[in-house]
Write a structure and sequence with these properties.
heterodimer, A: alpha/beta, Hypothetical Protein Ychn, Chain: A, 3 domains, six-stranded mixed β-sheet, 9 helices, 12% strand, B: 184 residues, mainly alpha, Rna Polymerase Sigma Factor, Chain: A, 2 domains
Chain lengths: 230, 184
């Protein structure tokens, strides 16, 4: 109960939050006309709420998502094709350069969007167990039997060992799957943690990095990809 | 509202989730005052939400449901670190360079420090009500506590904030009072 009036702190807070029944709200408003102390308390309560809202209107921003070294044989081929077309376009003139723009546009689409109506899979490996890694690679290979499928393999925690050139027993298989357009991602934060422990991390050439494995997983799930923890 | 089963419902949910991400991050930051941890909690929340979306029966309740997952993720994080609610570990507000600090809104920093000094249980209730405008009943559902507990935590949290931010200003000179007046 407040010192000089009949309303408790909880009631004053509930008034500020619009939680009171209309009748009780009217009573408080009428009372505040007669009682300057209550009026001041209501003002203070409102001010406090606004201060809290103000304090969190601008907060430190989320780090930008970083994906580094996006590599895929198919994309490289498309990029190479685009470069060839560019050269032809420069030599042959406007007509052929129009063709280049069309092909370049296709390459961008492939890189950044998930085609509608096709099967998209994200396989997540976090275990350092080679048997788990083998299962992930086998699963990726099986999924890629469907020509419409898109597959990404994301590794974090101990699973990053699968993509480290000095620890992986699967370099050949990763290369083969990469040639079939399977994308491999290592979690940058897992790499950072290893390096803080003095481990020099070198990834296989086919591996890309994303600043957080979970962020990559969420990104793809939001795009409708199917998530599978191996 | 029906069960989120159809493709359209799933798309709608993903849109809601994408649009909620900034608000979830703001709340996670208000609870932890650590932008990196807040980012992790939001990622974990989104991940859990996407995996459990079939359990969300009412799309209108998605908002409170997401914040409940966020609260659970923070709880799991603290449990993993063996932190107990009544044994608060003071957290310093994000490391900042002096140059950045000088450009920041001093009023906002002062309020954040006061909010950060509250016990987490009070901090969560105050910020869910004040920043997101959740009703007391919704906050009770998000945190899994009775409405009466929401009200008492809110009251105690606000009393502490008032003592730190408003009543202290009235007694300790004009400097901070004038800073508050700048935003009015």
């Amino acid at each position: 109960m407040s010192k000089d009036n009949m309303y408790s702190e909880e009631q004053i807070g509930a008034f500020t939050d619009g939680e009171l029944e209309p009748e009780e709200e009217s009573q408080i408003l009428a009372e505040s006309e007669r009682c300057p102390e209550l009026d001041a308390q209501l003002c203070q309560s409102r001010k406090l709420k606004e201060l809290v809202q103000h304090a969190y209107r601008e907060i430190p921003q989320v780090r930008p998502r970083e994906t580094r070294g996006l590599r895929r044989k198919g994309l490289l081929s498309l990029a190479a094709a685009a470069l060839v077309l560019l050269a032809v376009g420069l030599a042959a003139g406007w007509l052929v350069s129009q063709s280049y723009q069309s092909h370049a546009g296709q390459a961008t689409m492939t890189a950044h969007t998930s085609p509608v109506g096709q099967e998209n899979w994200l396989l997540h490996v976090s275990s350092p167990d080679p048997a788990t890694m083998q299962r992930a690679l086998d699963r990726a290979r099986k999924l890629m039997a469907d020509p419409a499928a898109h597959v990404e393999v994301v590794a974090n925690e101990g699973g990053v060992n699968m993509l480290r050139s000095d620890t992986t027993p699967f370099a050949k298989e990763i290369r083969e799957l990469s040639e079939q357009d399977v994308l491999f991602f290592a979690c940058s934060r897992a790499i950072q943690r290893l390096e803080e422990q003095g481990v020099h991390v070198k990834l296989v050439p086919e591996a890309n990095t994303h600043y957080s494995a979970l962020d990559r997983v969420v990104l793809r799930m939001q795009q409708g990809w199917t998530y599978e923890k191996i | 509202m029906g069960v989120l089963s159809g493709v359209n419902q799933k798309r709608l949910f993903r849109t809601i989730l994408a649009n909620s991400r900034g608000r979830l991050h703001r709340m996670a930051y208000a609870w932890t005052h650590d932008s990196s941890l807040a980012d992790d909690l939001v990622q974990q929340t989104c991940f859990q939400a996407l995996r459990k979306q079939k359990h969300l029966r009412d799309i209108d309740a998605a908002d409170a449901w997401l914040f409940r997952i966020l609260a659970n993720c923070l709880c799991d994080h603290r449990r993993a670190r063996r932190e107990v609610l009544c044994e608060e570990t003071p957290v310093s507000i994000d490391a900042r360079t002096p140059e950045r600090e000088a450009h920041d809104d001093q009023v906002a920093l002062r309020v954040r420090k006061a909010v950060n000094a509250l016990p987490l249980a009070h901090r969560q209730v105050v910020t869910l009500v004040d920043l997101e405008g959740f009703t007391y009943a919704e906050v009770a559902g998000i945190l899994g506590i009775p409405v009466g507990t929401v009200m008492s935590r809110l009251s105690r949290g606000r009393r502490a904030l008032r003592e730190r931010l408003l009543e202290a200003n009235l007694n300790d000179g004009t400097d901070s009072v004038s800073k508050v007046r700048k935003i009015r």
